[in-house]
Amino acid sequence: MTAQRGAAGREEPTPAALRAATARNLQEQFPGVRVWFGEATGSWWALVPLRNGPRLLEAPTPQQLREDILSARTRG
């Protein structure tokens, strides 16, 4: 199920659907980067391809992960 009824009677996305949409959005911002939410860890993850090989990043929020991806790409 990807939606549930809210208080106003309209369908609202589930937390899993919101996380999936957030991951897709980050992947669209950073082509080649794989992004996911770790259910077991409760963290956001990204595999960032860099010149010296891929780097695995972990962050508590999508916003922090975005900043970390930008930083990793800058440092290269």
Automatic annotation (TrEMBL):
It comes from the Bacteria. This is Uncharacterized protein. It comes from Actinomadura fibrosa. The lineage of its organism: Bacteria, Bacillati, Actinomycetota, Actinomycetes, Streptosporangiales.
